[in-house]
Amino acid sequence: MRLSVLIKTYNEGGKIAKCIKSVLDSVRGIEGGVEIIVADSLSTDDTVEIAKNYDVKVVQLRAVEDRGCGTGVQLGFQHSSGRYVYFLDGDMELQPGFLPQALQLIESDPGLAGVSGLLRDRTIRNWFERQRNIHRPTTQGELACLPGGGLYRRSAIENAGGYAGNRNLQAYEEAELGFRLHNQGWRLVRIPVVAVLHTGHAGTTRSLIERVWRNGRVASGGVFLKLALAQPYRFDAIRMFIHPLATFAYWIIWFVSLILADDWRIFAGLAGFGFLIYASLVFKKRSFRDAAISMLLWHIAALGIVRGFAIRNLHSPNTEIPSLVLKETEQEVAVTQIHIAKRA
Q: How many domains does the chain have?
């Protein structure tokens, strides 16, 4: 099998049909064998029923507690067989033309572990989408990780630990994979071609912030750092979280000062320093609101790091994730029937 396209889903009933159709259009004409796998994290809507209408393999978690971004990636990977695997979210639409270019590039460069393209948001409805649109990279070059999905070499993933997504992570699974690959000497690149259109969540900025706190996703930063501290890329991981870590250090200084110091000038200096950071952000972002949201997210991320470090009993990322195969592809069904007939 040359290529596996893995679609990670959770309650994507309104988007999964467009996603699968876009993949079917994109893989048309690709030789060497292609499989499409929908990896579902126990959706409570009609995502799975819609997916079953297409010639794709549908697999699903057994346990609700296994839900997570890293689990979704690994679930699809453990059911795949392609020499190259493309990771896609169920709210994305793969664009024609990207996969042939990415396959040609990765097959021509034996040191290349992954290739991504550009992501375009269909709508800008909240602060997160607006910031992604403002800071959207548009140039080709080497990257530390492939945000927004990408095409990977299976042998590179196997060389870098053997798992595509760390099941302990509800976020940052792409960064964790990128760090592992770089640690083994592999390279990742982005090409200046639109790879996916992204629909995203319809929630407001406030509702999305509340959601990541309620579902525990905010703790992924702490889990990520906790796992990274034992790895050679620990300092790269720390730099990735420099703002929330600096925010946490700021809290510690306040706390120590409250206990040990009795000088109003120290508190005035700390307050002034905080205001200076905010003023710098306002100048950089040209927005009082955007600066305030950035600082709020630093504080939330700092709390998330504490919360993540407190999590115990993490799973081994190489342990197979309990799952069910809900639907095979027509080709797999035909092969199974042939085997049954031979045995008879």
A: 2
**Residue 334, pLDDT score:** 55
Instruction: Tell whether 165 and 33 lie within a shared domain.
Output: yes
Burial class for 8, CB neighbours closer than 10 Å (0-12, 13-18, 19+): buried
What pLDDT, in 10s, does the model give residues 284-336?
Answer: 989 999 999 999 999 999 999 999 999 988 999 999 999 999 999 877 765 54
Q: The CATH number of the domain where 173 resides is what?
A: 3.90.550.10
- Cα distances (Å, whole numbers) of residue 206 to 10, 210, 293: 21, 6, 10
Region for 149 from its dihedrals, namely left if φ exceeds 0, alpha if ψ lies in -120 to 50, beta otherwise? left
User: 194 and 333 share a domain?
Assistant: yes
86 in the same domain as 102: yes
Residue 34: name the closest of 7, 83, 1 by CA: 1
Asked if 203 contacts 179 with a C-beta cutoff of 8 angstroms, the reply is no
Same domain membership, residue 219 and residue 153: no
Q: Which two tokens stand for residue 43?
A: 């959706």
Q: Which residue, 104, 90, 95, is CA-closest to 3? A: 104
Same domain? 7 vs 111: yes
Enclosing domain of residue 272: 204-311
On whether both 184 and 241 belong to a single domain, the answer is: no
- The C-alpha atoms of residue 173 and residue 189 are separated, in whole angstroms, by 17
pLDDT in tens, 156-187: 999 999 999 999 999 999 999 999 999 999 99
> Do residues 174 and 272 both lie within one domain?
no
Token couple for 78: 């453990």
Residue in the structure block whose two tokens are 């900025």: 205
Q: Are 102 and 117 in contact (CB under 8 A)?
A: yes
* In the predicted structure, residue 343 carries a pLDDT above the cut 70: no
CA–CA separation, 38 vs 152, rounded Å?
Answer: 17
pTM of the model: 0.91
Q: CB 192: neighbour CB atoms within 10 A? A: 11
